[in-house]
Amino acid sequence: MKNILKYIAGCIAGLTITACGDIYEVHEQYITEGERTYIGHADTVYAQGGFNKVNLVWKLNVDPRIETCVITWNGCETPVEIPVNRSVEYMNHVLEIPEGQYIFSLKMRSKSGEESLTETVEGESYGALYQARLTQRIITSILATPEKGVTIEWNAEEGCKKTVLSYININGEKKTVVIPETETTTIITDYVMGSEYEYYSAYAPEINAYEDINSLSKKGNFPAHYTLSKSEWDNTYHVLYEDIDRTGWLVTASTEELEGEGATNGRAIALIDGNLKTFWHSQYKGEGANPPCPHDIILDMQHEQEIISVELARREKNKDTREVEFSISNDGITWSLFGSLTFPNNANPNSQILLLPTAVKGRYLKVSVVNSNNGVNASIAEIMFTAPPR
User: Fold this and answer.
1) How far apart are CA 118 and CA 67, in angstroms?
2) Whole-angstrom Cα distance, residue 193 to residue 149?
3) CATH T-level fold of 227-387
4) How far is residue 114's CA from residue 358's CA, in Å, rounded to a whole number?
5) Other C-beta atoms within 10 Å of 264: how many?
6) What single string gives the DSSP state of each residue in 19-39?
7) SS3 sequence, 258-323?
8) Could you say which residues of the chain have pLDDT below 50?
9) What pTM was estimated for this model as a whole?
């Protein structure tokens, strides 16, 4: 038993001597090489994304030995070395870099080559792929009146910071209008009727982004005609023009309801009978019911007419008809579109007037219901016309 205890004690003593030897060797290494020291590192580092770029920002350490900041990132072939500027508290550097997500490393360096501990930060560069997903702010309505000019109604687009619209005005000058995100109505008075406009919307890709990123641009045309309410027409403009007598006109339709609306209603002839209580309706009963839009109505005016305005009254207390296009022809075969009217998804307004800046001429007039607020159903009470004063 005593021999066993002596053996154990000997082992413990041997291990202690060995451990002390190891500790001495490590200590000897530090005595030989010297303890490594670091200069001050970057503070408060953050990244801001932009279009094919990232802006790196950091607080400059007060350590006077710092001469440069060395920046690297995943995929970096050549580090970027930035001289420090002691006149500012925060430094920044914009990296032109392809679209993607990155981890950036920042290390301070002294004139003699001493370095700081590395600070890392994640950042993202946004490019064509991100831009392609952005949408232009939607124009819900664009109407022109002689007094106000063009009124553009915009929807609210989440994340949109602004919309920029450009056009050539009546003086031949390029105009640019910046529409803030909070603006839902824009009025333009110096436009050219029927001319082209172009616009894009800008979005912040992230909180505290380096810059907004623009959507791809979209083109459109200002209205080539005026759209008036019934009250505007009756109170101001109707008296300036001459009503066109529709007696003897012929009317045909690609679809009409001959069964479900009685002896008069549903038929195309109700469109020009002078009675707002009667109406035409697209077919919804029998064989061939519910044909898709467009529903075409052809008016044969019997001889060439000069038309300056069209008034369309929907069926009373009914919202079915949404968008209607108007075309004119001399032979009933070749058509020229000259305007359209769009109604909201409710019964008010019942009536709208299309007023042209210059009259159109022709014998045949086509009325096409191209969109409905109720599936394919459409109904119209009356279509009336005026000519320029003689």
Assistant:
1) 15
2) 10
3) Jelly Rolls (2.60.120)
4) 80
5) 13
6) HHHHHHHHHHHHHHH-----B
7) CCCCCCCCECHHHHHCCCCCCCEECCCCCCCCCCCCCEEEEEEEEEEEEEEEEEEEECCCCCCEEE
8) 1-2, 4-5, 8, 11, 13, 15-20, 22-24, 26-27, 29-33
9) 0.79
Identical fold for domains 134-224 and 227-387, yes or no, is no
Asked whether 132 and 57 are in contact (CB, 8 A), the reply is: no
Question: Rounded distance, CA 33 to CA 55, Å?
Answer: 39
Half-sphere exposure (Cβ direction) of 42: Cα atoms closer than 13 Å: 26
Provide the token pair at 336. 């020229």
The pLDDT, as a whole number, for residue 3 is: 52
Neighbours of 92 (CB within 10 A): 13
Tell me which residue of 291, 148, 280, 156 sits closest to 223, measured CA to CA. 148
Give me the residues paired with residue 229 across strands: 352
C-alpha–C-alpha distance, residues 213 and 356, integer Å: 39
Tokens of 184: 């839902």
pLDDT of residue 27: 45
Residue ranges per structural domain of the chain? 43-127, 134-224, 227-387
Please report, for residues 144, 194, 322, 327, 374, the alpha-carbon distance to residue 368 in angstroms, rounded to integers and kept in the order given: 21, 20, 11, 8, 16
Taking CA atoms, 203 is separated from 46, 54, 152, 198, 208, in Å, by 20, 16, 21, 17, 12
Architecture (CATH level 2) of domain 43-127: Sandwich (2.60)
- Compute the distance between CA of residue 222 and CA of residue 115 in angstroms, rounded to an integer: 62
